Amino acid sequence: MDGQDVKPRKDLLDQTWDFFASVRVTTVLLFLLAVASIGGTLIEQEGMYASNLPPEEYYPQRYGPVLGMLLLRTGMTHAYSSWWYLTLLFLIAAALVICSIERLVPLWRAVYRPNPTPDKEFVRRLRQGFTFPARGEQPLAELAAALRARRYLVIERDGRLYADKGRLGRLGPYITHIGLLFIMIGAGMRAVPGVYLEQYIWVRDGEIVKVPGSDFYVESLGFAVEFYETGQPRSYQTHTRVIDAGGNVVKTETIAMNEPLTVGRVQLYQSSYYAEYGHAEVALVDRQSGAEIDRFTLDLSQPQRAYTVGDYRLQLLAYYPDFTVGEDGRPTTRSSQVNNPGLVLEVTPPDGEPFTTWFFPLYPGMEFDDTTPVRFLTQDVSPVYTSGLQVKKDLGLPVIYLGLIITTAGAFATFYLAHRRFWAFAEGGQVIVGGWTNRNAGSFEREMRQIAHQLDPERYATESDMEGEER
Description:
The chain is of the alpha+beta class. Helices cover 31% and strands 34% of the residues. The chain folds into four domains: 12-105, no CATH class; 117-165 and 420-458, 2-Layer Sandwich (TATA-Binding Protein); 195-276 and 387-396; 278-381, no CATH class. It has helices at residues 12-20, 23-42, 55-63, 65-74, 83-112, 120-125, 141-149, 172-188, 397-416, 441-455, and strands at 128-133, 153-157, 160-165, 196-204, 208-210, 216-227, 233-244, 249-256, 261-263, 266-286, 292-299, 306-309, 312-320, 323-325, 331-333, 342-348, 355-359, 374-394, 420-427, 430-437. Strand 14 (323-325) and strand 15 form a beta hairpin. Residues 23-448 form the ResB-like domain.
């Protein structure tokens, strides 16, 4: 309309700045981050669940086929390293920086470049203040000395006085912002390859496994477990050997519960285990006479392709670690774990034709053909343990700890350091003093009364009147 001022339209950069400078926007972003963090805490993250199943198999089994696939597709199974979580961290960091710049610059000027000579009416209108007689050629000298004794910074200019202390208390929220930025930087570093790692490795007794995120290997020299009378495990540990890329043994150490193995920046925690059938002591027996021909040891996890037992030769034709019969009627295995091993063997006698037979180490009496000249008898089955070790590496953790220290310092400054200020000038034979504080007004009033009593004891309360009061 004519005669009315039209505000110029802000460009995109100014609009973006104003958007992130809004406290409401920052609050919403923090709420979304809190919700995402709670979800990541409640949902088992990849590399942290105690199972050797891959994520695409584990989550549908754990949460159901629909919800499990939804969690995988949305990235909730690795929430803290997902693109949307890192985007939230970036937006909050931007909001904190812009909010701090928007408010810190004028606050810094007001606190560290104060006006020692404001309008006299401003000093008179302050809620807290007192007067005392002006004495000598320098009427403000006594007040300045009393304030310096209480560790105030005193500025005298043009016959006026300004004093303050506790400036850091005004900057407490912004120190907290800096600490939060460090925490978010440390958390965001997890997206950088090689900085963060948390996953399981499964190491069988006697097995050597490459430790992800490192240049060394770990070998299990043996797993040990102790049980309560109820059968529940009481404690378990893995005796390990660390081997570098050149094959040299770096250290030999036992990993127990709450006693991790540390190599450089990588830590290995004893987290889980499972036991399966390991080795079977098997006897080859003459079916007609019942005499034992010889024995051999069968590795149920990785059986050999051929064995020599006495004068007999055995050839492994097929192995099913978890034997079952499929829907098509053919033999198959349910899983790769040794739960119900079944073997198809070709047996070559010393002076006869080879023949094929089945052997079930856990159920040696189950035979498909009882006309063979020999049969197998299981004498003993020993277990083998697979230790679940959790590998942790977090190079951003020192940055997060630094952020926590800075945040704590900022919170302390915010809540426990009060910014106290005095203004004074001489007029009409009196020194007029006014004071202001940003918090804890009661304590500031007591301090002002003490200063007033020191400068004019006849007019203001005596020291004995204030005994027992907190300074």
